[in-house]
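can u do me a favor
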């Protein structure tokens, strides 16, 4: 029974993290969109640059963790 509750807590935590990240992005885009399309496009480009750096580093760390065991 304890394992089922642990899984349920992990799922609730994961859902809440995704919800908070989505709400954060919604607020950021809402505030920035009032400054014009150029600023909004710049923010989008900035997010893409951050993702292009972040995603490979996460992939490498996951691969290293799988190799180490």
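np, heres the sequence
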């Amino acid at each position: 029974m304890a394992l089922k509750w642990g899984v349920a807590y992990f799922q609730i935590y994961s859902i809440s993290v995704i919800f908070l990240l989505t709400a954060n992005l919604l607020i950021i885009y809402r505030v920035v969109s009032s400054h014009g399309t150029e600023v909004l496009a710049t923010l989008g480009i900035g997010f893409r640059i951050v993702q292009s750096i972040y995603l490979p580093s996460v992939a490498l760390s996951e691969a290293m963790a799988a190799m180490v065991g």
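The chain has a mean pLDDT of 88. hope that helps!!
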